[in-house]
Specification:
The chain has 3 domains: 42-159, Immunoglobulin-like, CATH 2.60.40; 188-295, Immunoglobulins (Immunoglobulin-like); 300-407, Immunoglobulins (Immunoglobulin-like). It is mostly beta strands. It has 2 helices and 26 strands. Strands 1, 2, 3, 4, 5, 6, 7 and 8 form an 8-stranded antiparallel sheet that branches. Strands 10-17-16-12-14 form a 5-stranded mixed sheet, with no helix packed on it. Strands 19-26-25-21-23 form a 5-stranded mixed sheet, with no helix packed on it. The chain has helices spanning 2-16, 422-451; strands at residues 42-44, 64-66, 69-78, 86-93, 106-114, 120-131, 139-147, 151-159, 188-194, 197-199, 203-212, 219-226, 232-234, 239-245, 250-259, 266-278, 282-295, 300-301, 310-312, 316-325, 331-340, 343-345, 349-354, 359-368, 378-389, 395-407. The chain is rod-shaped, with a radius of gyration of 54 Å. Strand 7 (139-147) and strand 8 form a beta hairpin.
Length: 453
C-alpha cells in the first residue's frame, strides 16, 4: 500500500512539470460591448410648487395629510427633445405600512401645469391619494413611486395624527379599513352651439357650450378633440386643452369649421371626444356630437327682357321671360311681374321650380294703353321684378328697369286726300261742256252731208 502511494505521488509530480503553452488553451471569444441607446430622461421638478404641495422638493417636500388620505405629488420633467406623450406611474408599499393596499397605478399625460407663482410648465404631474388605516401608527414611512421604463423615486410620508408608538395601550383594537365612497365618473354634455349653420364654400366659427354634469367632481387635464370629416374641414386646432373645469360648471369650446363648395344641403354631425382626470387619480372619457347644417346658395340669372322702343295704344306685346339657375340648389316659385303706367300685363309670368344647372321660359302678354293723367302719350318707364325662393322659403328678388314711347293710335294712319277748290271745278265743267258741244256739232255735220243729193 505504501508503495502504491509513492507511485501516485511520483506521477503527479511528473504531470506538474509538463509545460503548457497559451496556444493549447481554448480560444476565448470577446463579448461585444453594448452601446446603450439614448433614451429620454425624467427628472423631478424640484424648483416649483404645484397644487396640493406645501414646499418644493428642493425645500424638503413632505406629502400632505388630508383626513384619512396621504396626498403624494410627483412632478416630472423631461430634458430630451423627443418627449413621450405619457408615462405609467405605480405605487409600491412596504409590508406593515399604514396605507390601504390596492392598485394605485395611473397614466400621466404630458401637459402644461401652473405652479403657485402662476408660471406654466410642461411636465408629467402625478398625484396619488393613498387611503390610510384609522389605527395607523405615527412615524415616517417610505413610498416608492415606480415610473415604467424610467426608474423609481422614493417619497417619505410623515404621519403625526395616528397612534403614538411609545404610549401604553390596553389592547390593540382591530379596526376595519375605511371603505371609500363610490365615485361615479362625471359626464360631459353638449348644451348648445352658436354658428352651426353655414353656406357651402364658407367657414363659420362654432361656439360650443358644454357642461360638467357632476355636482361634486371637478375635471382636471381635460382634452376635447373634434373629428371633422368630409364635406367639412377644421381651420383651427382639432384638440383643445382645459386645465380644470369646476363641478356643475359650463365651459365653451371654439372651432373654425369650413364646408366644401360642393357640400349638399342638409344636416351633418361633428363628433367630439373627451378625456379627463377626476377624483383622486381616476381617469375618464366620453363622447358627444354637434349638429351642423349646410345650405346651398341659389344663384339665378335673368336675361334682359326685350321690349320695343315704342308702342301704339291698343297694341298687344308678347314678352319672352327667361330664367337660368347657375347654382346647385333648386329655385322655387320663380316668377316675373311687370309694372308700368300705360302697360297692363295679363297676370304674372310663372316659371315654377328650376333645378340647378337648368333654365325655364315663359311668355307674358301685355296690353298697351294710354298713360294716366293729362299727358296720355309719350315716354313711360316701368320695371320687371323677378322673384324666387330657396329651399328654406326665403324670397329673393331682382329687378330690370325699362322705358318706351307710347303713341296715339292715329299717329300711324295715312293723311286724307285734299278736296278740290271751286275754281278747279268750273274749269272742269267748262271742259266737259265744250267737249259735248264739239261732239254734237260733228254729229250734225255728218248727218247733213248724207242728206244732200
Amino acid at each position: 500500500m505504501r508503495f502504491i502511494q509513492m507511485i501516485a505521488a511520483l506521477i503527479c509530480a511528473c504531470l506538474l512539470c509538463i509545460p503548457v503553452s497559451a496556444e493549447d488553451l481554448p480560444e476565448q471569444t470577446d463579448l461585444p460591448e453594448s452601446v446603450p441607446a439614448s433614451a429620454p430622461v425624467l427628472l423631478i421638478d424640484n424648483a416649483h410648487i404645484y397644487a396640493n404641495m406645501q414646499q418644493s422638493y428642493a425645500q424638503g417636500y413632505e406629502p400632505l395629510i388630508d383626513g384619512d388620505y396621504a396626498v403624494i405629488v410627483l412632478p416630472l420633467c423631461c430634458e430630451s427633445a423627443e418627449k413621450p406623450d405619457s408615462v405609467r406611474v405605480s405605487v409600491g408599499l412596504e409590508p406593515g405600512s399604514p396605507f390601504v393596499v390596492k392598485n394605485y397605478e395611473q397614466t400621466v399625460s404630458l401637459a402644461v401645469h401652473t405652479d403657485t407663482d402662476g408660471s406654466a410648465h410642461e411636465i408629467y404631474l402625478a398625484e396619488f391619494w393613498l387611503a390610510m388605516y384609522r389605527d395607523r401608527v405615527n412615524g415616517c414611512y417610505p413610498v416608492m413611486l415606480q415610473v415604467a421604463d424610467f426608474g423609481a423615486y422614493t417619497v417619505y410620508v410623515n404621519i403625526t395624527d395616528g397612534i403614538d408608538p411609545n404610549a401604553q395601550t390596553a389592547e390593540p383594537v382591530q379596526t376595519e379599513p375605511k371603505e371609500e365612497p363610490v365615485i361615479l365618473m362625471p359626464k360631459i354634455l353638449v348644451q348648445s352651439i352658436a354658428g352651426g349653420s353655414m353656406q357651402a364654400g364658407e367657414s363659420a366659427e362654432l361656439h360650443i357650450t358644454l357642461k360638467n354634469t357632476s355636482r361634486t367632481e371637478a375635471l382636471q387635464n381635460l382634452t376635447l378633440t373634434a373629428s371633422a370629416a368630409a364635406p367639412f374641414s377644421l381651420q383651427s386646432a382639432d384638440t383643445l386643452y382645459f386645465e380644470q373645469v369646476a363641478a356643475d360648471a359650463e365651459f365653451e369650446a371654439v372651432y373654425v369649421c369650413q364646408a366644401a363648395p360642393d357640400a349638399a344641403a342638409g344636416t351633418y354631425t361633428l363628433p367630439l371626444q373627451f378625456d379627463f382626470a377626476y377624483g383622486k387619480g381616476l381617469n375618464g372619457a366620453g363622447s358627444g356630437n354637434v349638429r351642423l347644417s349646410v345650405a346651398q346658395p341659389v344663384r339665378m340669372e335673368f336675361p334682359a327682357v326685350v321690349l320695343p322702343s315704342e308702342a301704339i295704344v291698343s297694341d298687344r306685346l308678347e314678352l319672352h321671360i327667361q330664367a337660368i339657375n347657375l347654382g346647385a340648389a333648386a329655385a322655387q316659385n320663380v316668377r316675373a311681374e311687370l309694372t308700368c303706367d300705360g302697360l297692363i300685363p295679363e297676370g304674372t309670368a310663372f316659371l315654377g321650380s328650376i333645378s340647378g344647372g337648368t333654365s325655364a321660359e315663359s311668355v307674358l302678354n301685355v296690353q298697351v294703353t294710354s298713360k294716366r293723367g293729362a299727358e296720355m302719350y309719350g315716354e313711360t318707364s316701368g320695371q320687371i321684378v323677378f322673384t324666387y325662393e330657396d329651399a328654406s322659403g326665403t324670397e329673393q328678388t331682382e329687378a330690370q328697369d325699362f322705358t318706351l314711347m307710347l303713341k296715339s293710335p292715329f299717329s300711324g294712319r295715312p293723311a286724307e286726300p285734299k278736296q278740290a277748290s271751286p275754281n278747279n271745278w268750273l274749269w272742269i265743267m267748262a271742259g266737259i261742256g265744250g267737249g259735248i258741244l264739239l261732239l254734237t256739232a260733228y254729229l250734225i255735220f255728218r248727218r247733213r252731208k248724207r242728206v244732200q243729193p
